[in-house]
Amino acid sequence: MENPNRYEIAWLPGDGIGPEVTREALRVLDAVASAHGFAFTAEEHLMGGAALDETGVPFPDDTRAACQESDAVLLGAVGGPKWDDTTGDQRPESGLLALRKALGVYANLRPIRVPEALASASPLRPDRVGGADILFVRELTGGIYFGTPEGRTDDGARSTMVYTEAEIERIAHVAFQRAQRRDGHVTSVDKANVLEVSELWREVVSEVQDEYPDVMLRHLYIDNAAMQVVRDPQQFDVVLTGNLFGDILSDLAAALPGSLGLLPSASVGGTVGLFEPVHGSAPDIAGENTANPIGTLLSAALLLDELGEPDAADAVRYGVDAALEAGFHTSDLAPNDEAVSTSTFGREVASRAADHTHQNASASLS
Ligand code: NAD
Ligand code: IPM
Ligand code: MN
Q1: pTM for this one?
Q2: pLDDT digits (tens, 9 = 90+) for 175-229
Q3: The 3-state secondary structure of 6-40, one letter per residue
Q4: How far is CA 208 from CA 176, 272, 313, in A?
Q5: CB-CB contact of 276 with 265 (8 Å)
Q6: Residues 123 and 255: beta-carbon distance below 8 Å
Q7: Does 96 sit in the ligand 1 pocket, CB within 6 Å?
Q8: Is 61 a catalytic residue?
């Protein structure tokens, strides 16, 4: 193919299972690239605990520069017991917050659906979770993660939840616009019965809704929302949350399909998009080649969507579904003696994603 689109991906494997799962995502991207008329480079950069060990900081300046100059950032995970005694700016997790802030990616999109092949992997009743399809729109660069004052005091510690009207407005627009392309329903989650910042959240979200008469809006308190996500997930379409509530609710919702390892995310709205699975570094299974790479593979699909390669993104999603349907499961979804490794699963997805690409190409030629 002449003059393929060429993308520079900043690859931040990070810690724990991060290297294992991102490697598979690159394998699958490689499997679909040329047939879809694009090429990419994936330059590796230090991030998190690995960066701290090597350079003394979790988010080195050259990693920052490389991310800002890239077309997209693919991240594994950061943190782990080795660095649990670090504090403040030294913590691997604070490096991740600094990366999100540096890129300005205020909108964290966390889609959750329950693939048919997995309805029985859920700890919940298949008839309740089957067909659940939720998009969490989580505010990512504000709220209690970033508010001041913060830190230790003489006799305690404080963290402050702050949202400006402008921060709430822009994330609300993202939620309503996504809902327009889905089932037209937004549930906004807050704690407006207690927190002033949530009172403002509720007011501003309702005002923004005036611009989207085709989208229904309802407000739920976070405590009730948590219960409803488990009790009846099919009632949700788009769920709009602040930073902390979205973090908690999306891990909770991972129990619907049955594993945290399944959930992808895209963080957008800034200069360059950041794509990472929802899970962390999973120190309990790191280095074993047993982690589920699906969250990262689907994050790579979101990356392709964002770069304007929707057919390649669909091929990746097809590959994941087809590998699951063919009975390939990692150990979070199957008994150990039936489970395949991270890399085997990645290879099974890659070959199916590539076949899908070729089948579609020959169909359009005939
Ligand atoms: P975790 O998400 O790493 O793990 C929680 C549980 O889910 C573990 O039992 C783990 O084995 C399992 N799990 C997670 N991903 C999996 C996968 N792909 N396949 C199979 N099982 C998987 O959460 P944690 O244990 O609370 O945190 C560990 C470290 O990761 C901490 O340092 C935390 O701060 C960090 N963390 C980082 C990110 C990130 O980088 N985005 C996100 C969450 C947590
Ligand atoms: C996530 C993680 C991060 C967050 C941590 C590691 C900073 O839990 O991406 O969900 O809370 O945003
Ligand atoms: Mn989290």
Answers
A1: 0.97
A2: 999 999 999 999 999 999 999 999 999 999 999 999 999 999 999 999 999 999 9
A3: EEEEEEEEECCCHHHHHHHHHHHHHHHHHHHCEEE
A4: 9, 25, 31
A5: yes
A6: yes
A7: yes
A8: no
What would the two tokens of residue 32 be?
Answer: 């679909």
Taking every pair of C-alpha atoms in the chain, what is the biggest distance, in angstroms? 75
Ligand showing the shortest atom-to-Cα distance for residue 260: 1
Closest-lying ligand to the alpha carbon of 281? Answer: 1
Stated length of the chain: 366
Buried b / exposed e over 304-336, threshold 16 CB at 10 Å, is bbbbebeebbbbbbbbbbbbbeeebbbbbbeee
Full set of structural domains in the chain with CATH = 1-109+261-366 (3.40.718.10), 133-255 (3.40.50.2300)
Cis preceding linkage at 149, omega within 30 = yes
Matching residue, tokens 């809704």? 209
Report d(CA 51, CA 57) in Å as an integer: 6
